[in-house]
Design brief:
mainly alpha, 92% helix
Length: 26
């Protein structure tokens, strides 16, 4: 399902960005 795939990609990208922000803050 294309919507599910896009949702997963969005969540993964959001998680990666959050991890980078956490690393920068620490």
């Amino acid at each position: 399902d294309i919507v599910l795939s896009l949702t997963i990609l969005f969540l993964v990208n959001k998680t990666e960005v959050n991890n980078k922000i956490i690393i920068i803050n620490h």
